[in-house]
Each structure stands twice: as C-alpha cells, then as structure tokens.
Amino acid sequence: MKWPVGRVSTAVGITVLAFLISFAVAYDISSISYFAPMEKASDFRISDFYQIVADGRGVRELDRRIVVVAIDDCSREEIAEVVEQVDFCAPRAVGLDVFFDYPMGESDERLVGAIRACERLVLPLDLRYEAEADRFASGKGSFFYDRVSSAEFGAVNLAGSDTRSAIREFRPLFPRAQDTVLNFVAVLARQADPAAFDRLAARGNAYETIAYPSREFEVVEAGEVLACRELLHDRIVLIGTVRDLHDRHMTPTDARMPGVLLHAHALSTILRGDYIRETGNGFDWTVAIALCFLMVLADVLLRDKNVGELVIRLLQLLLLYLVVLCGCHLFISHRICINFAKPLLMVALGLLASDIWFGMVGAGEWFRKMWRRKFKSI
C-alpha cells in the first residue's frame, strides 16, 4: 500500500495518537498497583517495586556505623543502666528512642541522672501537626524533659499519610512557630558526621526517600552491652525496642519493621549519602515516546511482511522487558528511580494505536471509493 506521506511520518502520527491515548489513562495506570500485594495495593509507588527487587537479591550489607541496643522488657532501672553502659563504651552519638510518659518513683532518679550524664544523647520528640498553619507545635515528650533542658532533641514523626501507609520517606526539618526542629536521625548525623549532615542540609528537600534494600544492622541485647564494648565504641547507638508489636511499621521491604530499625535505615541513608533521585514527568514521557516510536516504526515497515506480525509482537515483549530491567539496574546501581509505568503504557498501547490508525486509513479509503462510485453513477 502506498501512503500519501512517508513511513516515518506515519510512525510519528501513530506515536502521537498512542501518546494521547496513554495520557488519557495515565493517572489510572501509573500506580501499577497490580504489582503490589493486595494489602498494599492502595498504597504503592514505583519506587516500592525497585526497593523490593533490590532487597530480594542475595546481597546483604552490614552497616557497621550503626548499632541497635534492644531494651525490650527492661525496667526503667535497667534502661538507666543500659544508658550508663553505652556511654561508658564511648560511642559517637546515642539515640534513645523511648518515651517515658509518667513518673514511677525512685527508679526515675537514676534514669534522669544517666540521661544527664550522657553528653552524646539525643532524645525524641513527637510533634503535633497544625494543618491550618502547615507547621508543627509541641507535642509528646517524656515527663522529665524540663529537667534535662540541655539535652539534644529530635522529632520522630513518621512521614506517612496515615497509620496504614508505608513509610518511604523522612522529613529532615519540622518548622514550628518559634523555631525549627531537626529530625531525630538528622541530629544524630550532625553529631556523628557533620559533613554528611551538611550534605543533607544542602539538598534542601522537604522529604528524603529512605534507602531500605539489602541493609542490616547489628542488634545487641541490653545485657550484652559491656561484652560488646568494641562493637559500640565510636559508633552511633540507637536504644529502643525491636519486639514491641505496637511499634511496627509498614515499609516497601518489610510489612512489620520496628521503629528503631526504621530510624536506623533513615540514618544510614544520610551517612552514606544514599539518596534516591526520581526522574520527572518530562523525562519519563520522553523515554516512553522514544520507545513507542521505535516499535511503531518497525510495525509500519514490517506490516506487509509475512513474519512482520510475529516480529513486532516479539519486539514489543522485548521492549517491555528492557524497560523494567533497565529501570531496576539504574535504581540498584545509581539510585535513579524511573517511573516505568509511562514507557510500559505507551509500548503496550503503541500497537493498538497503530491498528486504530491503519483502520481509520482503511475506512477512509473505503469511503473514498464508495464516494467515487456514487459520483460516477450520477
């Protein structure tokens, strides 16, 4: 069949049609929630898919700069002893991820004394969000905070839309009416590695994505602190519970991650500078259009060939596979997160647009022939 325009121009027209069809449905498809388990289908992002793939590899790395001390089932007297022993090990920084809501008597004196004596200690704050002013206000803290005013404090608010959403990000800064509060892990990073903290501050992002995949941390039980003195020396020590069922959170790689380990992953992201870069809509659509054009052009060139249909279907499958493969490689190797939903969508709909195009051209020719016959009969 001889076309009134060149085949490349035809491929361009079909690609434009594919783009219009894809753009019309992109907001329904871009979440690709069918990749997620049913319990996560309503809360799923492209970066989750990459993190799951990266974490599923047979590669695990122990971050030796961070050690977690588990204080499950410890009394306040025992927690005070843990703080004293951890301080004796001379760590770079100590984060106490525990709230003490009310006083309990004599045991509190030793706890408050241990906290005062530990100069490297960072205490948690749970700030209250004021939606009307889009800022935070003073919220939850331990009952003795007015007695340790010289201590460092950091906000432990989690960046989730609700209690059931996955925790993917952390917020470095929390603005209040009178000042700005740093994130709990940002304060620890500032103490332990000022250069890493400066890199975080220079980025100036309201939120940072946490890099979860393939990372593990040493966990020391409360009664083993002194036996592990060398392990804790010059490290960042996070003290908290790891088996508390009330302090579990959904993440892209773990449906029930303890809060203290969530802080460990966020802190590790800062120390390593392991920040995830997401490509914008412009880049994603450009890749999608380019891949779709290549497939459509091949369809235009091979449509009249005997094996053209088979070759085109194989090319479509190959492009779909390469889109996901390249996306995973870029994330794992360079922490670049490409939203492959748009390329997948356009590659999948490219042949549909091609069929529509040639169907419209065929229908046009049929109407033209019918019109000519009718005109000649007159």
Task: Please describe the topology of this protein.
Layout: H1 7-29, H2 46-55, E1 61-70, H3 76-88, E2 93-96, H4 107-117, E3 121-130, E4 135-140, E5 152-155, E6 169-170, E7 173-175, E8 180-182, H5 184-192, H6 194-203, E9 208-209, E10 215-221, H7 229-232, E11 236-240, E12 248-249, E13 257-258, H8 259-272, E14 277-278, H9 281-302, H10 308-334, E15 336-337, H11 341-377
Parallel strand pairs: 1-10, 1-11, 2-3, 2-11, 3-5, 14-15
Antiparallel strand pairs: 3-4, 6-9, 7-8, 12-13
Protein described:
The chain is elongated and about 110 Å long. The protein has 378 residues and is of the alpha/beta class. The chain contains 11 helices and 15 strands. The protein folds into 2 domains: 7-30 and 278-377, no CATH class; 59-273, no CATH class.
Percent of residues in beta strands: 15-25%
- Structural class, from helix and strand content? alpha/beta
As a percent range, the share of helical residues equals 40-55%
Q: How do the helices and strands follow one another from N- to C-terminus?
A: HHEHEHEEEEEEHHEEHEEEHEHHEH
Question: Could you tell me the mean pLDDT?
Answer: 89
Low-confidence stretches: 29-41
Tag the structure with descriptive keywords.
378 residues; seven-stranded mixed sheet; two-stranded antiparallel ribbon; 15 strands; elongated
